[in-house]
Amino acid sequence: MDAKNIFFIGFMGAGKTTLAKKLANRLNREFIDTDKEIEKTWNMSIPQIFSEHGELFFRTQESLLLNQLIKKKQNSIISVGGGLPCHNNNMKLMNDNGLTFYLKRPTKELFQRLRNVKQSRPLIQALSDSELSAFIEDKIKERSVFYEGAKVILTREQQNVKSLAELLSKL
Ligand SMILES: Nc1ncnc2c1ncn2[C@@H]1O[C@H](COP(=O)(O)OP(=O)(O)OP(=O)(O)O)[C@@H](O)[C@H]1O
Ligand SMILES: O=C(O)C1=C[C@@H](O)[C@@H](O)[C@H](O)C1
Ligand SMILES: [Mg+2]
Which of 48, 120, 123, 127 to mutate to test the pocket of ligand 2 (most atoms within 8 A of CB)? Predict the structure, then answer.
């Protein structure tokens, strides 16, 4: 029997892409990352898409892709861009059509991780450390209402392949 798609959601740097890829390998299910799909389609990096076409264009591409994935895919493990759940009714779409897992992480930890990978993330690329810290705090406040609407909010301890495989076997 086909299983539902699983969507990993959460703030930039939460580890959605990393964990979704590992879990898909373990469960022998297809791995899809919305950022990577959009980069492939446009043959451009995310920072290039933002600078040449703007954020609104990117958000439209995310929503179009999400709608296509929902129609075409089953059994897939999908990591979505950090902002995708917070635009265009996408959170409801994912909840209505799959299992949503929120990778909730403390802001301090997100800051430590994002400091090292700012360049590939246009919204934080140009921020100093103190600006980055403030940005994370503010954005999480703004976005939590969407993220916290996930079917499952994963604690830090649950954010590993073993715990997730166990959790899924019980659902
Ligand atoms: N469990 C972990 N422990 C330590 N570092 C991690 C862990 N998971 C991911 N990272 C690191 O954190 C950074 C961000 O991870 P990743 O790209 O998976 O996040 P993301 O949630 O997909 O972010 P985005 O929303 O920007 O796509 C990477 O440098 C990755 O190596
Ligand atoms: O949180 C966000 O708005 C983003 C997260 C990344 O996954 C990318 O989708 C992009 O850098 C924007
Ligand atoms: Mg990612």
Answer: 123
